[in-house]
Amino acid sequence: MDPFWERIRADSMSGTGINAEDALAVLRLPQAEIWSLLEISQRVRHHFKGDQIRLCSIVNAKSGLCSEDCAFCSQSIRSQASIEKYPLMEEEEIVAAARDAKQQGAREFSIVTSGFSMQSNRELERVGNAIARIRTDVGLETCVSLGMLSAENISFLLSRGLRSVHHNLETARGFFPSICTTHDYEEDIRAVRDAKAAGAWVCCGGIFGIGETFEDRVDLAMTFRELDVDSIPVNFLNPIEGTPLDGMCDLTPFGCLKIIVMLRLCHPLREIIVCGGREMNLRDMQGLIFAAGATGMMIGNYLTTSGRPAEDDLRMIQDLGLGVRSL
Ligand code: SF4
Questions:
Q1: 315: pLDDT confidence band, cut at 50, 70 and 90?
Q2: Ligand 1 near 304 CB (within 6 A)
Q3: What is the pLDDT of the chain when averaged over all its residues?
């Protein structure tokens, strides 16, 4: 067998993960090689993570008016996108959204807010109260994505029943200033490290198709390794009208699959969750995300865009002979 194929198979099946050079080679492979890649990534996923898929769902609990200028985001200060803008939802509304998510099939629920950080202790307390009820009354695992959180804030939320802290790095360190100028990459790195240190399950991923190079994609994958993140959410750009990236179209369905494969082979033991932009970028190839190595996906609506009906996703999982993981 060709040494490259032998090496990527051995390095991923050993649990160590492939190196940066091989990760780049994976992304550069011609489209025809996707089937050989999927044969490996499917085996790695099955071996380490089994055939039960994680399903999570989110609520956009505070929308728009964000001080940050992330170029892909419809909620940023730079965006002219026509979206609904509102302050932090009431506790009752957040809990109701979690109940809906559970009914649709989600096992984990994330409270997401726009903005650099929470505005006040009152806001944090409201989120904490909602977490406690989602955990005990609704019966879902809990996650938050609230921007920058201090170690104290995280400890408080963990004491209320929080399991995961989500904080995306979005892209590679070197490319980040082309996407966001209002804060520094190192602040995001610190936020991820703080969440790990506080004992949270850390969900840290990025968005692809925003103008980054293959090298940037590999750099980001290696940064996830350095930070020892637990779960990697993968978003593909949905270029929303009114955002600076409106009209950008860098991704193909096979390109998206190769990104998932590359992440799976770099991170054999981690969760890889396919999130925003799945429907529009993968189109009829959505069913292949699990062969590519995904262990979960987000169902329902995204932050400011709609997803497809959850029953379509549940049927897809069943048709593939996979199951839904209970957390
Ligand atoms: S991605 Fe988050 S931080 Fe960046 S503009 Fe959007 S809401 Fe703000």
A1: very high
A2: no
A3: 95
Atom 2 in ligand 1: residue holding the nearest Cα: 114
Give the span between the Cα atoms of 105 and 113, in whole angstroms. Answer: 22
Q: In whole angstroms, what is the distance from residue 261 CA to residue 183 CA?
A: 30
Which stretch of DSSP H or E encloses residue 225? helix 214-227
Whole-angstrom Cα distance, residue 76 to residue 68?
6
Which structural domains are found in the chain, ordered by start?
3-324 (3.20.20.70)
Is the beta carbon of 70 within 6 A of some atom in ligand 1? yes
* C-beta 76 within 6 A of ligand 1: yes
Name the residue among 257, 213, 326, 303 with its Cα closest to residue 41.
Answer: 257
Indicate if ligand 1 lies below 6 Å from the C-beta of 71: no
Give the Å distance between the CA of 154 and the centre of ligand 1: 19
The alpha carbon of 112 is separated from its chain's Cα centroid by a whole number of angstroms, namely 12
Q: Does the Cβ of 81 fall within 6 Å of ligand 1?
A: no
Atom of ligand 1 nearest to the CA of 69: 5
Residue type, 246: D
Range scoring the smallest mean pLDDT among 14-18, 210-214, 248-252, 268-272: 248-252
Q: Specify the residue for token string 């099946």.
A: 13
Q: What is the pLDDT of residue 327?
A: 67
Q: What is the SS3 assignment for 232?
A: strand
**Per-residue confidence at 2, pLDDT binned at 50, 70, 90?**
very high
Does residue 142 sit in helix, strand or coil? strand
Nearest CA to ligand 1 atom 5: 76
| Half-sphere exposure for 207 (CA within 13 Å, toward CB) | 19
- Give the residue whose CA is nearest to atom 7 of ligand 1: 114
User: What pLDDT is stored for residue 100 in this prediction?
Assistant: 95
pLDDT in tens, 51-73: 999 999 999 999 998 999 999 99
Distance 147 CA to ligand 1 centre (A): 8
* Residue pair 28/66 in contact by the 8 Å Cβ criterion: no
